Amino acid sequence: MAQLGSVTLVGAGPGDPDLLTIKAVNAIARADVVLIDDLVNPAMLAHAAPGVRVVEVGKRGGCASTPQAFIERLMLAEARAGLHVVRLKGGDPYLFGRGGEERAYLRSHGVAVEVIPGISSGLAAPAGIGVPLTHRAWSQGAIFVTGHGKDSASEPNWAALAQSKLTLVIYMGVARVAAIQAGLLAGGMAPGTPVAVVQSASLSAQRQLLSTLQALPADLLASGLGSPSIIVVGDVVRCADAWDDHGAGAQRSVSA
């Protein structure tokens, strides 16, 4: 009977290959097969051994996606064939990456699973424009939240989030920005609250918008920014390199 293989869920970070951890690089180098997500920079595969088998298992909102159940069954089949499988996931496997679901599935079938954290775009995006998620003067914490739930019953409670007074880091929120704005305003968040939108964080194609909660939907539409983007809401955005407290025009700016 063939020896059972293993699976490593690897966080590929926000896109810049230099932001891979050493442990992630070593795992990729040992892989027999790599299942790579759509948003992972293909340059990461430079660390793989010659002849490694690469399977694209793209998952993007609004686009044709590889079913999650298929990905899980494929990882199980490859591990049962005695192979070391690397599941290369954008950002961090446990932050909106379905890593928890995949680990539970594989462990329930007796497969050993290791998880290697990655730098989430929710950390890289604000850092890339000079924004700290916490600041003693403005925010004592940060909340990472998806822009939409699995269904209507699991939608984020934007009014409650507004009342937290913490920095909001919103993933997958571009398509629902009007609803997000309405919910935050209904919760009492000030219309002038600073907002940053960062697209393709850490890559040469990175672009960002600085705006306010009140102007966000119109400014985002005019900017042409789309997915993948991170939205950061809170007074910490005043720390952005391009923010100018004295110039409204500078606050509503797009830059590459």
Automatic annotation (TrEMBL):
Domain Tetrapyrrole methylase: 7-216
PROSITE patterns reported in the protein's UniProt record: SUMT_1 (PS00839), SUMT_2 (PS00840)
UniProt-listed InterPro entries: 4pyrrol_Mease, 4pyrrol_Methylase_sf, 4pyrrole_Mease_sub1, 4pyrrole_Mease_sub2, CobA/CysG_C, Siro_Cobalamin_biosynth, Uropor_MeTrfase_CS
Pathway listed: Porphyrin-containing compound metabolism; siroheme biosynthesis; precorrin-2 from uroporphyrinogen III: step 1/1
E.C. numbers: 2.1.1.107
Pfam families: TP_methylase
Protein name: uroporphyrinogen-III C-methyltransferase
CDD domains: SUMT
Family to which this protein belongs: Belongs to the precorrin methyltransferase family.
GO annotation terms (biological process): methylation; siroheme biosynthetic process
Gene Ontology molecular function, alphabetical: uroporphyrin-III C-methyltransferase activity
Keywords: Methyltransferase, Porphyrin biosynthesis, S-adenosyl-L-methionine, Transferase
Record flagged with keyword S-adenosyl-L-methionine: yes
